[in-house]
Model the fold of this input.
Amino acid sequence: MKKVAFTGLLFLLFTGLAESQEILVLDQAVAIGLANNYGIIMAQNSNQVAHNNASPGNAGMLPEIGVNAGYVNGLSNANVNVVSGAELNNTRAHSDLITAGIGLSWTLFDGLNMFITYDKLKKLEEMSELSAKITIENTIARIIGSYYEIIRQERVTRIFTEQVLISRFRLELATMRFETGTGSEMEYLKARVELNADVADLSNQQTLFENSKTTLNDLLSRDVNTPFVVQDTILVSTLLQYDSLRSSMKTANRNLLLAIRNKQVGQLELKTARANQWPTLGFYTNFNYYRSETEANFVQYNQNFGPSFGLSLNMKLFDGLNLNRAFKNAAIALQTNDLEIKQIENRLEAYLARIYNDYQNQLQMIGFEHENLLLAIKSMDIAKEGYAVGSISSLQLREVQQDLLTAGTRLVTAEFKAKLTETELLLLSGKLIR
Done:
């Protein structure tokens, strides 16, 4: 009897703690995850890097300007003889050299490669953005699944708690009958053993429940011991239509869009391979200053400054057919991109069909299991009354008790699976986030 009272006290404490904690709604959990999740933040950082890289300067479209300057002060032993017969001998010849300049170089034409490169950088930025959105979508789907897993574990905990209360009721009657001589000791002992087993099951279930909350806190990238409670209802949409989901999937699925962008990058790679076969025309201009003073030469002072400019033309006449090889490989890679898109489309079609079938099945299961639970509850009420008056045995009561446990957990599981398939369908069709 002490164990029974202790179990009831644990449940009351558990319920009281839950009521004193702040309720975390799903939208709030998603918002916290979007703001704090480490994976999302890292994906956004990668996207920012891709955005920074998608610039005309990184594509080589802008000129390069540089400055240079130098100063040399030297002391040397000079011995100079010239054809005219003049001689210069200075064991401590001092010299100063000053140079300075500013220059500009600009590629005027490279087979349009710079423009192709800029387009490629923009596509890579789009791909990075899609990858970040995929990370966000997957994280949100995991948060949703984790949130409803908590609801599932909490409701199963309530079911196990009800089992303990029923077993306690059974033990109380078995104890009373044993003490008054109307019942057997075996029935009393069996009631105690099965109550202890139910208490152990409840303890294990409470651990699963607490661990599910830890998992969500981890997904939200916050203190894993942060206390909270969740709403206790699993609402499943019954409005999802296959044709609408399929149509949206073809235009909005992020993985498919990523593959399409990858193909577009492949098309630009092919253009790059073709552009590399053209000559490169560049323009350069400089303004230089030069001044030299030396005692080690007959020309003791030399100074000049002024601008210069010119054009440069470079073209490979033969490179071992490497440019031709690169063009062929780019063409093959583009064919591979086409095959990858078709493969992803086929897999998405198959996955959508399977998940939608599971979704419809779980919706049907919810109706069946709800009816079964109502019948099990009614049977339990009848069985408790029958056991109280001695019209049914403890074994029959236990069987009805197990039927109630099974019906309750099956309903919760059906609702949970239906919610997971609903989330997966929205993820596949690109409707989970906008």
Q: What stands out?
A: The first strand starts at residue 23 and ends at 24. DSSP finds nine helices and six strands in the chain. The CA atoms of residues 362 and 418 lie 5 Å apart. The beta strands are 23-24, 64-81, 87-109, 229-230, 280-294, 301-314.
